[in-house]
Design the sequence.
């Protein structure tokens, strides 16, 4: 009798195992089938649902198997080891937190405008290369980086990437990390500000809506500071309702001749307004503008992303963009350069983002209750980020290719009128007519959608089509479009505020070594000077981008992508060094392979951006062509000064790119030397880990 | 039974939302703080929290 029961239990266990195996086989097959259908379908539109299934299937399998392998074999996560949050708990910085709450914080911190803008721009190569890189780059590169750096910081009391680089790689490594972070931040802030300018210029509806978010945020700030201290949710709900009202009210502003004139702003005027705003947001107390805007934007961000996911599932739009376009040859109008390396540089954050390493070695490791939670938070949050990128790709590729190119190409390439743009784009083989372009602009409540480079407007049109397919139909297209624009602009401005402020602290820290009072973060003269320095830095590149006849995005976005991917290479160098020192050299390929790939991509892209003979790609070639125009007397006298400035800007861009390359090459050389000494036994691998302290908690919480 | 499950789930979602947004930060701090010295007021705690949060990188690309 007893034996029969034991047998039965064994059989049941066996059946359960078989079911689990069958389930994972099914998930893997669905994912693979969906990938095959988006990769091999030709000549007819693919449904967006296959994109969702391909991504979700791959993510699930990667999370279940690859991240488990990383956790158990490569890193050896140890749940008996007390985390910094347990040992150093002070209720403020170090604070044991439920893992589902930590992943919420972590995702809100890493999800920025990058995975929305990058895939939209990369859609000019067709939907296939970008989608494949978003998925593969994330599961093999981005998620691994975030996870491993989070683990390394967790074992070092939450130390930053710069500190780890200094202690584990070389003394110069820390300096390289800090300088590159500061430089990247300046380029990042400039390019995202440029995206906002291009979305708002000559659009009274969008500009007035975004302007209204400033008093709304201040009202929330006063509410949370004085009336109901710390009641974040109440204030956010009030703020959200007011912002929705501002979106609707924007059309009345645009409809009134007087007010429309006030809010119809040119690119340079908007750039100056944003520069002044960035300075104010950095110098004002955080409770007044920065914090409430951040709360508001985090809510709208998560809401809009969930709504987009729901909308894609309900509407299941057809993907009208071909899998590959003719622009893989490097002649694309959105940005110049071949599919390798520029597809990877352009996608950037949606697949691998160096910036995430700063978050993974910042707040997050100070909150985790168990080492094991690092897998969900580090690997899992990046999967979600990659999914946002795939959705942005879907929204952009659901547009007619002709419309997509009309919105995203600068006037210098397709022309500034609908007729001209339609003729040029049709001649490329993406038929579109002027009436369609004008009609679409009118339906979303704009004068024109032409030449709105930067990705945000075309994504907004794509999102508006998906949303209006769910709720409201064509009648609400204008509201949805401006809601999407507001959502993108709002959280770009949040990145701008927060980035300017953190950049200010970094500059203060650096200048504090030169003159001590400048290092005091509350000394007002220093606040004004250092805020001014940071704003001047990104403001210069922003203004340069606005005045650039090729549209600015063409030079600034690749510069940002290169710097971001280089920072990721820095993080992976640090991670590989730590793995080697831990005696896990056997598994070092998990970080070494993505690092080698990123170094190859960024070095190729940097070389081309500096030296390529095509003036649209190479900064120096562009400077040379402009110089020849002046020398031959081809330009009217009033244009000469402006052209000389353009020449200087191109040389500056080349110099910045070269600076990034030199920094990373120094770091890699030092790391290689360190690896050689460790592997050859010339140096004892001194790991800077905190010693093992057993956890006092009985069982894994959360 | 079903209604109960729904209530539990929505209570959990609400608690999660409060925790993620930082809405419950003060209550959580006071509940856990068995520390010497007077606890800060709600307002002091809120301002201190903001100062810490926005002095380091909290948002990304």
Sequence:
């Amino acid at each position: 009798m007893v034996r029969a029961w034991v047998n039965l239990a064994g059989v049941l266990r066996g059946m359960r195992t078989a079911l689990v195996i069958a389930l994972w086989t099914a998930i893997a097959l669905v994912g693979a089938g969906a990938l095959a259908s988006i990769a091999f379908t030709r000549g007819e539109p693919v449904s967006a649902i296959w994109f969702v299934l391909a991504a979700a299937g791959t993510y699930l399998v990667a999370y279940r198997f690859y991240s488990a392998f990383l956790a158990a074999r490569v890193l050896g996560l140890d749940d008996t080891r007390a985390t910094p949050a347990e040992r150093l708990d002070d209720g403020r910085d170090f604070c044991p937190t439920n893992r589902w709450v930590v992943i919420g914080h972590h995702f809100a911190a890493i999800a920025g405008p990058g995975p929305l803008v990058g895939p939209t721009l990369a859609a000019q190569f067709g939907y296939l290369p970008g989608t494949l890189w978003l998925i593969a780059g994330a599961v093999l590169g981005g998620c691994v980086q975030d996870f491993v750096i989070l683990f390394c910081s967790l074992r070092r009391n939450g130390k930053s990437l710069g500190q780890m680089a200094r202690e584990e790689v070389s003394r110069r490594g820390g300096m390289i990390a800090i300088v590159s972070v500061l430089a990247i931040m300046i380029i990042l802030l400039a390019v995202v500000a440029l995206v906002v300018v291009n979305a708002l210029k000559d659009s009274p509806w969008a500009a007035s809506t975004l302007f209204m978010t400033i008093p709304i945020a201040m009202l929330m700030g006063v509410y949370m500071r004085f009336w109901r201290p710390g009641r974040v949710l109440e204030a956010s709900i009030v703020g959200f309702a007011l912002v929705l009202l501002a979106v609707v009210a924007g059309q009345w502003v645009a409809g009134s001749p007087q007010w429309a004139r006030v809010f119809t702003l040119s690119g340079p005027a908007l750039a100056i307004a944003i520069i002044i705003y960035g300075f104010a947001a950095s110098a004002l107390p955080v409770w007044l503008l920065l914090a409430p805007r951040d709360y508001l934007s985090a809510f709208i961000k998560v809401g809009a992303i969930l709504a987009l996911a729901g909308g894609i599932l309900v509407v299941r739009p057809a993907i009208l963009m071909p899998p590959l376009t003719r622009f893989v040859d490097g002649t694309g109008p959105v940005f110049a350069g071949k599919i390798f390396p520029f597809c990877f540089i352009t996608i950037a954050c949606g697949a691998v983002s160096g910036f995430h390493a700063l978050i993974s070695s910042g707040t997050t490791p100070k909150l985790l209750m168990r080492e094991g939670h690092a897998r969900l938070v580090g690997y899992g949050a990046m999967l979600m980020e990659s999914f946002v990128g795939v959705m942005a790709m879907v929204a952009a590729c659901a547009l007619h290719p002709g419309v997509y190119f009309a919105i995203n190409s600068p006037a210098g390439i397709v022309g500034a009128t609908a007729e001209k743009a339609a003729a040029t784009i049709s001649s490329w083989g993406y038929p579109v007519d002027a009436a369609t372009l004008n009609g679409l602009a009118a339906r979303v409540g704009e004068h024109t959608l032409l030449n709105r480079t930067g990705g945000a407007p075309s994504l907004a049109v794509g999102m508006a089509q998906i949303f209006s397919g769910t709720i409201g139909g064509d009648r609400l297209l204008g509201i949805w479009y401006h809601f999407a624009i507001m959502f993108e602009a709002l959280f770009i401005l949040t990145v701008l505020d927060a980035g300017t402020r953190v950049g200010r602290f970094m500059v203060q820290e650096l200048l504090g070594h030169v003159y001590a009072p400048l290092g005091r973060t509350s000394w007002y003269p220093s606040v004004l000077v250092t805020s001014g320095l940071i704003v001047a830095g990104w403001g210069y590149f922003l203004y340069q981008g606005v005045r650039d006849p090729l549209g600015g995005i063409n030079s600034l976005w690749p510069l940002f992508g290169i710097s971001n991917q280089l920072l990721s290479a820095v993080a992976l160098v640090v991670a590989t060094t730590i793995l080697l020192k831990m005696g896990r050299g056997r598994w070092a390929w998990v970080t070494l392979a993505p690092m080698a790939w990123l170094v190859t991509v960024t070095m190729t892209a940097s070389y081309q951006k500096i030296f390529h003979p095509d003036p649209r790609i190479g900064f120096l070639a562009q400077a040379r062509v402009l110089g020849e125009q002046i020398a031959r007397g081809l330009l009217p006298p009033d244009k000469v000064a402006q052209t000389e400035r353009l020449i200087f800007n191109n040389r500056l861009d080349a110099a910045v790119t070269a600076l990034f390359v030199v920094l990373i090459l120094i770091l890699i050389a030092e790391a290689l030397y360190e690896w050689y000494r460790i592997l050859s036994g010339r140096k004892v691998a001194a790991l800077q880990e905190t010693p093992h302290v057993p956890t006092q908690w009985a069982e894994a919480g959360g | 039974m079903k209604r109960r499950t729904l209530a539990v789930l929505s209570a959990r979602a609400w608690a999660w939302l409060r925790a993620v947004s930082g809405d419950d930060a003060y209550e959580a701090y006071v509940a856990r703080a068995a520390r010497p010295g007077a606890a800060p007021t709600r307002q002091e705690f809120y301002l201190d929290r903001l100062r810490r949060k926005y002095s380091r990188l909290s948002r990304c690309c």
